[in-house]
Amino acid sequence: MKYVDEFRDTRAARRLVDDIRRTATRRWVLMEVCGGQTHSLLRHGIEEELRETVELIHGPGCPVCVTPAEDIDLAQQFALREDVLLTSFGDMLRVPGTRKSLLDVRAAGGQVRIVYSPLDAVALAQKHPDRQVVFFAVGFETTAPATALAVRQAEQLGLENFALLVSHVRVQPAMESILRTPGNRVEGFLAAGHVCTITGFDSYVDFVREFRVPVVVTGFEPVDLLQGIRECVRQLESGRAEVTNCYARSVRREGNRHALVAVEQVYRIADVPWRGLGVIPSGGLRLRPEYARFDARRRFEDTGCEEELPVITTPDCPAAEVLAGRMRPSDCPQFGSRCTPDSPLGAPMVSSEGACAAYFRYRTPAVDASQPAGASQQEATR
Amino acid sequence: MCLGVPGQVVEWLDRDPVFGRASVEFAGVRRVCHMACVPDAEVGEYVIVHAGIAISRIDAEQAERLLDELRTLDMDDELPPPTAAASDDATAGERSP
Amino acid sequence: MTESSWQPGCPVPIDGVEPRITLAHGEGARLTRQLIDTEIRSRFRSAPLATLPDAAHVEGTGGRIAVTSDSYVVSPLFFPGGDIGSLAVHGTVNDLAVSGAVPRWITLSLILEEGLPLPVLQRVLDSVARAATECAVDVIAGDTKVVPRGAADGMYLNTTGIGTVIGSPPPGPQAIQPGDVIVVSGPIGRHGMAVLCAREELAFDPAPRSDSAPLTDVVKTLLRVADGNVRTIRDATRGGVSAVLHEWADASELSFRLDEARLPVSPDVRGASELLGIDPLYVACEGTLVAAVAPDVAEQAVEALRRHPQSAGAAVIGSAVERTICPVTIRRTLGREQPVDEPTGAMLPRIC
């Protein structure tokens, strides 16, 4: 597969690993804030391979993990309405809200439909004028253009049966929040390559000046990740703190103008809660007043939980620590024993992109002695 | 968060600024993708697709530049050139952590 | 049942006026008999079905018999490369074939949802009949029940397959030795991907096709070439190749090492799985087998398989080793062994 296979090349990866090892004179602490990068670092064995040279902390880059439980609950309430068809990305289905997941709600008769793209949800709304189609709009800045486009399409089509439950989050405020937390050990960032594809990386210029940490825009394939890590290490070794682009085939300094315009038009920046991290100022997006009519929260204002559901924080799940990178999944006492993908105690283990789940799936055989997860209910292919 | 996959633009189906779509090929399958964010993408070009929309046009030159650099890295090491089979035999020995 | 449970890809044009299955069809009385006459006996002409005794009597061969039982609850009912009907026949036949038996007879039990359009049932039964002929098996007994609207997702099928054991069948996973080679007969993950893409209407072109097919000939080819050196064979269904290897690891108390670079994946599955973020190792097949063979016959076996059109994509994917902590591991880009977990739960596309 072009532009994929070349960047998974074993030889090139190995050369980069060697170069990183040669370059580093001490063990640096880097963070990536993108679930897709976490997944790739672990799947391709990069974290393990560089363990002696670089400590890789996995930041709160999995939007599925940081989507507030209350928003998931709301999505479930919509799904249980007779008149609503709730559409969502597949990732969200297994994540529990306060109590249960969308998958549970579907099993109980709620109308939940997976879509690959928010634009498919618009098509569904056109196809089913008798139903209210709500799309659960989660994701970082990479995904916001798609949902913004969905709203613009619905607007032009004059659809009255399409709405968004917006729960978008923004990466950079989270990075700032992490750096400002006492006890922070992060010395350099791998910036999310697809987020930067949309936003560009100009906004990091002031960031590196203020915080004096290098920010390297990085891609997702093993070669891209190793390139990014190498650049970050080089900067740290020479005492620099700059913004560099190591994903130039996709990322331009100014980002994607068309995408930014669409997002600007439809969304405004807002202070929003992140699951496990609390409210992050300017950490999210909400619909602008001009588009309020597409806001599911407004349209279905009568929907809501009857009682105040206690927020279930399993005291044993240190999600906040893991998401902020202060604790490694494998350091959690419950990891792999009481907490597994089959019986998760918190969001980072539930979502397949959460740091804990990725750790579990790609752990080195020698390091981890937990039982393999047992097979649970399969969706029928027979 | 960002599963973005490169695909090749095969055919434009609609060039409307909001509804623009094209057929994009990924290895063995094609899918209609929304192109509002890459209205100038040309047939034959590669784009990165995330959640059904193309979010960037791949800069082939930049990609080639990176791959060239990696090949240079290769030569600096003065190791024998890669064999055509490109198996991972050369890297089979695991470095102990 | 939502109409969508069978509609995606349903080749039958439903316009709301065709006859439908009602609860009365399952009552065992006149309507049931009519249904059996017009839909079952018209398509399946085995001797027992001609007289409809309570139990079918068939001529055995005096040797050992193999028996398997399966249920089919796939949704949607129709998908590229097959449907619940052909799937039921192929799946049953394959369970018998990989155990070293010649498939001979099948029973077919139908659990139909009230409201199922009759043309849909007819289409499925046509498919069963075609597959049965193709696989040279007779449908000799069955049952029909109707359940209220909302249950059975359109239709469920249950089968029992009976075959005759010939020669000495492969002994089973407990016979696997360290050094044995793991072979697959073709690209993996096709069926599961086809069903997922059809069910969620993911609109790939071409739509990934199921590999649903009988494995009888493929098994014959393998056993002929590697006679006595095949430890065990499985068709890799739910949970894919990963599930099979985990079962074998349990039974043999060995571990299995796979090499990612050697896993055969067809281009359409590759493209779809990259886009959806799903690993083909965990995805069901329905016409692809996994076999553990002695190392000295592995190459011959693969060559022979490749000469057969149905297994042209056969490949060695790994080997058995002394048991380590992880039952199944895979070597990826940087050459590190990583665990391959047992598949857990439904495959869901991801965007992260």
Give the integer mean of the pLDDT values of chain C: 90
CATH homologous superfamily (4th level) name of the largest domain in chain C: PurM-like C-terminal domain
Query: Into how many domains do the coordinates of chain C divide?
Result: 2
Class computed from helices, strands and strand pairing of chain A: alpha/beta
Characterize the largest beta sheet of chain A: strand count, sense, and whether it forms a barrel.
5 strands, parallel
Low-confidence stretches of chain A: 306-312, 367-378
Largest sheet of chain C: 7 strands, mixed
Distance separating the two termini of chain A: 30 Å
| Strand coverage percent of chain C | 15-25%
Number of H/I helices of chain C: 9
Describe this structure in words.
- The complex is a heterotrimer of chains A (382), B (97) and C (352).
- Helices cover 38% and strands 16% of the residues of chain A.
- Chain A is of the alpha/beta class and 382 residues long.
- Chain A is globular and about 65 Å long.
- In chain B, strands 3-2-1-4-5 form a 5-stranded antiparallel beta sheet, with no helix packed on it.
- Chain B is elongated.
- Chain C has 2 domains: 3-165, PurM-like, N-terminal domain (60s Ribosomal Protein L30, Chain: A, 2-Layer Sandwich); 173-339, Phosphoribosyl-aminoimidazole Synthetase, Chain A, domain 2, CATH 3.90.650.10.
- Chain C has helices at 30-41, 47-51, 84-98, 118-134, 190-199, 216-225, 240-252, 267-276, 295-307, and strands at 65-72, 78-79, 82-83, 101-113, 138-147, 155-165, 181-184, 204-205, 230-235, 254-259, 289-293, 315-322, 328-331, 337-339.
- In chain C, strands 9-11-7-12-10-13-14 form a 7-stranded mixed beta sheet. Chain C has a 4-stranded mixed beta sheet with strand order 1-6-4-5. In chain C, strands 2-3 form a two-stranded antiparallel ribbon.
- In chain C, strand 13 and strand 14 form a beta hairpin.
- Chains in contact: A-B, A-C, B-C.
- At the A-B interface, helix 1, helix 7, helix 8, helix 10 and helix 13 of A face strand 1, strand 4, strand 5 and helix 1 of B.
